[in-house]
Amino acid sequence: MTEEETRAWFESRYAPARVEKVARFLDMVRKESGNQNLVAASTLPNLWFRHGLDSAQLVELSEGREGSWIDIGTGGGFPGMVVAILRDGPTLLVEPRQKRASFLRDAAEAIGLKNVQVEQRRAETVKVSKPAAIVSARAVAALPALFAGASHLVSRDTLWLLPKGRSARSEVEALTGSWQGLFHVEHSLTDPESLIVIARGIAPA
């Protein structure tokens, strides 16, 4: 899918104002990448596809759930910032690195996003008033470590959306005896060999 085709994908699903905010954010990422390594340099010519669509597909998989969304290890803003642009619910971006957290705060302010909060800390130290409806994490940690580190942020009702590349099935299999829940694997729109783990009802075995 070309950059033009990817933008058309967004335009067919979301209001023009949201698409324009995605465009503004991707431009900010492109410019900031000269100061810090937000994304792989090889992906800069294909930001709409490699990072925009890769993030937006999680919104498509979120079953229209309302409530808070926590994105762990947001990094350069993916998927968390794109999620916050495309939905109205509160979005918490958890990013421990100071420079990246500062960029995320500045970007949210520049774009005019009112539903974003940035926490510059590790997920294990984040405090929330109620469990998240949805948790996402893109290439942050193996599933056992991720579930353990975020267990205080969720309930059995939380939906987990976890892009895991090619390791998805093996990581789910490795949970046997330690974590239980309902797991489903979807193919990524941006790479047919990459997989997304969709999980619910997660609890220690």
User: How are the strands of the biggest sheet laid out side by side?
Assistant: 3-2-1-4-5-7-6
Return Rg in Å.
16 Å
| 3D shape | globular
Number of strand elements: 7
Amount of helix: 25-40%
Q: Strand content of the residues, in percent?
A: 15-25%
Instruction: Return residue spans where pLDDT drops below 50 for at least 5 consecutive residues.
Output: none
User: How many structural domains can be distinguished in the coordinates?
Assistant: 1
Which structural class do the helices and strands define?
A: alpha/beta
Give the end-to-end Cα distance, rounded to a whole number of Å.
41 Å
**CATH top level label:** Alpha Beta
Question: SSE layout and pairings?
Answer:
Layout: H1 3-11, H2 16-32, H3 47-60, E1 69-72, H4 80-86, E2 91-94, H5 98-111, E3 116-119, E4 134-137, H6 143-149, E5 159-165, H7 168-173, E6 179-187, E7 195-204
Parallel strand pairs: 1-2, 1-4, 2-3, 4-5
Antiparallel strand pairs: 5-7, 6-7
Helix pairs in contact: 1-3, 2-4, 3-4
Account of the 3D structure:
The protein has a single domain, classed as Rossmann fold (3-Layer(aba) Sandwich). It is 36% helix and 20% strand. It has 7 helices and 7 strands; from the N terminus they run αααβαβαββαβαββ. The chain has a 7-stranded mixed β-sheet with strand order 3-2-1-4-5-7-6. Helix 2 (16-32) packs antiparallel against helix 4. The model has no long low-confidence stretch (mean pLDDT 95).
Concise overview:
The chain has 205 residues and is of the alpha/beta class.
Keywords:
205 residues, alpha/beta, Rossmann fold, 7-stranded mixed β-sheet, 7 helices, 7 strands, 20% strand, globular
